[in-house]
Amino acid sequence: MDVSASVKTHVKTTNGMIRPDTFRVIAGPCTVESYEQFVASARAVKQAGFGYVRGGAFKPRTSPYSFQGLGEEGLRILSEVSGDLGLKVVTEVMDPYDIELVMGHAEILQIGARNMANFSLLRRVGAAIAGTDHGVVLKRGLSATVEEWLLAAEHVAAAGGDNVVLCERGIRTFETSTRFTLDLSAVIVAKRLTDLPVIVDPSHAAGRRDLVVPLSKAAVAAEADGLMVESHHEPQEALCDGEQALPVEALMGMKDVLQPFASAMGREVI
Ligand code: PEP
Ligand code: MN
């Protein structure tokens, strides 16, 4: 199948979020846990110089006994805090039933790795964002090929939603020293096959915070258009993914650490 031909016919670059001369960093906690937790983490994102904050309200947890997110209350916290700080929001939508609700609180809808092949969700999100300024971050499935990932984006586009950003977040391999294996080849391949922007999530790929900055540098060199990283004002207290969350000091240093690499690629870290 000629994926390149089909995907290229539909896509455009997301409004202002991704540009060829910028390297966009989206940061924030895995999950919105409370107003106090989110506002502290979001202030750090703002102080670090970034304009997009992430945080899950609906969480796809492997275990049904883990914290599942605050749901609608989490969305209200996201929009209130981001409105006060002047940040844009990226948050996951898991259920077609919640799409309109999530769109009322967030500019960018995340479709998580575990839902990449949920075709009815993809099509409903595509139809819902058609003709709006909303965008989608589409994560690569844990064991999806690049072709399957691009065709998932095509499902969103075929339903009318052409504002799609692909996100490589690591795939499952035999390696156990990292949570997943970050597949930077896939970033380069996807960018050759489509006009879609591609960002990298080093946090879920590594599963450990000491690898997040080195992998972020590698993502810049691999032609990525940006990053999505997890950060938390108190990582040791996080209800979800604390081991991979960057603490405030590391987030503050991120822009300066990445800019020389981004400059070499002709990009400004924003
Ligand atoms: C997340 O971004 O918190 C998340 C659950 O990501 P993924 O779908 O890539 O596991
Ligand atoms: Mn997470």
From TrEMBL:
Protein's GO biological process: aromatic amino acid family biosynthetic process
Pfam entry (one): DAHP_synth_1
UniProt KW NAD keyword: no
Regions that span the bilayer: none
GO MF terms, alphabetically ordered: 3-deoxy-7-phosphoheptulonate synthase activity; aldehyde-lyase activity
Family matches, as InterPro entries: Aldolase_TIM, Class-I_DAHP_synthase, DAHP1/KDSA, DAHP_syn_2
Stretches assigned to the DAHP synthetase I/KDSA domain: 21-258
EC number: 2.5.1.54
PANTHER family: PHOSPHO-2-DEHYDRO-3-DEOXYHEPTONATE ALDOLASE (PTHR43018), PROTEIN AROA(G) (PTHR43018:SF1)
Keywords of this entry: Transferase
Protein name: 2-keto-3-deoxy-D-arabino-heptulosonate-7-phosphat e synthase I beta
Superkingdom, natural source: Bacteria
